[in-house]
Amino acid sequence: MKMEEVSMSSLDNSKLEGLAQDILSDLVEDACLGLCFEVHRAVKQGYFFLDDTDQESMRDFEIVDQPGLDVFGQVYNQWKNKECVCPNCSRSIAASRFAPHLEKCLGMGRNSSRIANRRIVTGNNTNNKSESDQEDNDDVNDNDWSYGAEKKAKKRKSDKVCFFNYKKSVVEFPHLYINSVLVYLFVHL
Amino acid sequence: MSKEARMRATINQKLTEMGERERLKELLRAKLTECGWKDQMKAHCKEVIKEKGLEHVTVEDLVVEITPKGRALVPDSVKKELLHRIRAFLAQHATV
Predict the structure, then answer these.
(1) Fewer Cβ atoms within 10 Å of its own Cβ: the N or the C terminal residue of chain A?
(2) Helix (H, G, I), strand (E, B) or coil at A69
(3) B84 in contact with A, Cβ within 8 Å
């Protein structure tokens, strides 16, 4: 069944406005009813009053807004000016510098091993006493990282590399070697 | 059926068919939650329920108490925005 088409000209603007208001009214009523159903279900299922707490306990957990305190009411910079005694060297260190000091003092952590390594290197280069020689021998026998072993291993590697390069260059640039080959033949023939 | 009544029926049908009615509903719900209307109405519901008793409250009770107040409390800005969209729709589709 075809719906008859209606033209705009026969209608007033006020009628259109009235229609718009009616549509709005329907929508609002729909929203209200939706809310009623939602609330009624919550009441009957028993979860409507679940988020209510009494005033007393609400006050216990209120957000704290005072200077010098965090939102829980705790003091957050009370460790700034304290000093700690190092268990290793028995010195009094400031709290914020305590962790790095402990690292160096106990000889643990990343930085302290780097510093020790550096000291060993400078010890090898400048110091020729028997003390450092002994250290060297020990290091050579070590399979883990050690300066001496690294050096030897590196040297062998560089020799091999040179050898390969020579062979490669002969293959790639034969014209450069022809002179020497000709001389060789000339001498021997 | 008068011309006007037919026009209304056509418009309503178009609103539903094109999904515009659903979109308007969602928009209205979102706006009402945003502006705090929903929380206000929920607080009013709590009072009604405390009055009538938790066990005995019915949907009818709530509807009768809530709807008039709900209509009155819708903020003007929300009404304006919705009307704007409805008028735009009518301008497009109330013609042939």
Answers:
(1) N
(2) strand
(3) no
Residue B30 has a CB neighbour count (10 Å cut-off) of 11
Contacts of A35 in chain B (CB under 8 A): 38, 41-42, 45, 66, 70
pLDDT digits (tens, 9 = 90+) for A40-50: 999 999 898 88
Enumerate the H helices of B18-75 as residue ranges: 20-34, 37-52, 59-73
Confidence of residue A102 (pLDDT cuts 50, 70, 90): confident
Q: Domain holding B15: CATH number?
A: 1.10.246.140
Cβ atoms of A20 and B90 closer than 8 Å: yes
pLDDT, tens digit, 9 for 90 and up, residues A120-168: 988 887 765 444 444 444 444 445 554 544 455 455 555 444 455 565 5
Q: Residue B62: which of A8, A27, A39 has the nearest Cβ?
A: A39
* Range(s) of the domain holding residue B88: 3-93
Residue A170: predicted pLDDT: 61
Domains in chain B, number = 1
Name every chain A residue with its beta carbon within 8 A of the beta carbon of B78.
Answer: none
Counting residues of chain A whose pLDDT is more than 90, the rounded percentage is 15
Q: What is the pLDDT of residue B12?
A: 93
